[in-house]
Design goal:
The chain is 53% helix and 8% strand. The chain is an alpha+beta fold. The structure holds glutathione. Pfam families: GST_N_3 (PF13417).
Length: 213
């Protein structure tokens, strides 16, 4: 198994957590998206979308972190990260999509670069944009947990896809100096998760391609 990723990429971080939780080891290849390597001819032939991560497994080549984790869950079911029970599954996906589909794309590297390079936003305005969408998304995530939470993890007493999405997003927000005080439930889950070896080992600074934030 091989994972193409980038140490600071939260989508890659989600998959690293899932692999670790399942006890799977994958060869890791860093694609430096700060230097534009996601657009190189070589990587484009691997993932035409120009995003990390990409997983290779048994002849399969797959992009999109949530699709990758869903694949891993089917192929290597233990422990299950996307629950079977209808309501719990729906809650986990609702929370995960809020982060992965609504929040994360607005603050992606290509969007931030476009805002600076094409729309002329200076560093301060760009950071305001970033912080605005973090506050919007994390505020909604906090409210979902307030309504439906009930355990040490986002949903219940075992980690799920929701935790795989939350922890990397909080790490990114923290790296960008966003104020996280308004999210006590998210912070409590993070404090718990960051004691778990699967989450500790998936951290950006533990990756072989780490070059500093
Ligand atoms: N929906 C995709 C998003 C992947 C994504 O946005 N990856 C970022 C890093 S976290 C990336 O490759 N960005 C490159 C760019 O913006 O040019 C997924 O979940 O895998």
């Amino acid at each position: 198994m091989k994972l193409y990723g980038f140490f600071n990429s939260s989508a890659s971080y989600r998959v690293r957590i899932a692999l670790n939780l399942k006890g799977l080891s994958a060869e890791s290849e860093g694609i430096n998206i700060r230097n534009g390597l996601q657009h190189s001819a070589e990587y484009s032939s691997i993932n035409p979308a120009g995003f990390v991560p990409t997983l290779e497994d048994n002849g399969l080549r797959l992009g999109q972190s949530l699709a990758i984790i869903d694949y891993l869950d089917r192929r290597y079911p233990q422990p299950q990260l996307i629950p079977e029970a209808a309501v719990l599954r729906a809650r986990v996906l609702e929370f995960s999509y809020l982060i992965a589909c609504d929040l994360h794309p607005l603050n992606n590297l290509r969007v931030l670069r476009y805002l600076q390079d094409e729309s002329g936003l200076d560093e301060t305005r760009k950071n305001q944009w970033y912080a605005h969408w973090i506050a919007d998304g994390l505020g909604k995530a906090e409210e979902l947990l307030r309504r439906h939470d009930g355990g040490e993890w986002c949903f219940g007493n075992a980690p799920t896809l929701a935790d795989c999405c939350l922890i990397p997003q909080l790490a990114n927000a923290s790296r960008m100096n966003c104020d996280l005080d308004a999210y006590p439930l998210l912070n409590a889950v993070a404090a718990h998760a960051l004691k778990h070896p699967a989450f500790i080992q998936a951290a950006p600074e533990r990756q072989s391609d780490y070059v500093g934030s």
